[in-house]
Amino acid sequence: MDSNPKLRTENLTRVVGEKVIVAGVNLTVQAGEVMMVVGPSGSGKSSLLRLINRLDEPTAGRVYLDGRDYRELPPLALRRRVGMMMQMAYLFPGTVADNIRFGPRQRGVELPDEEIERLLSRVGLAGFGGRDVARLSGGEAQRVALARVLANEPEVILLDEPTSALDQEAKDAVEDLLQEIIREEGLTCIWVTHDLHQAARMADRVGLMEKGKLIRIGAPEEMIDA
After folding, report:
1. pTM for this prediction
2. CA–CA separation, 173 vs 49, rounded Å?
């Protein structure tokens, strides 16, 4: 295994009041690897992603991106390199194109219409640029959210149960799309899921969290009883 991982956490911890949310997580993810994180509700899975993306600040510990402490990066620069998709799309009011342009605009880049269309075609939504986001289905909204992340050309993508709010048909389609794009783009991925079958299908390795702790990591066939 590469001794210079793409992303590494060291004793990553978050405590709020007297409640331990994430407790001393040590995680190493190699470039191009898909790490699935499973565990019961309230085990700290989503909170771990929020710490890695600096949506929340750790109480203790470090996160390293390409060996560099992520606190040396401005948060916007970090979130460009480490994109995140949530369970719900949380799109801004306006058009699909407005949403996709948002991230690059934060760093002074205006995406041309041709690039918007390329990104939308990539996620199966060719011609949707002018559509109001209020008119999108759940599956379409998640595809727009993915295009919005890809517009920033991330190196790492954090996925917080991105298919769990979708019906089965939309879930299967978005899962297939994510798998295709992750592999083709060579993205490093940490994917939180409650679906063990999804973890078995998608993961290179699986981590199990309980009570804020990452208690075990292994190959899918070791971690999940088929």
Report:
1. 0.92
2. 24
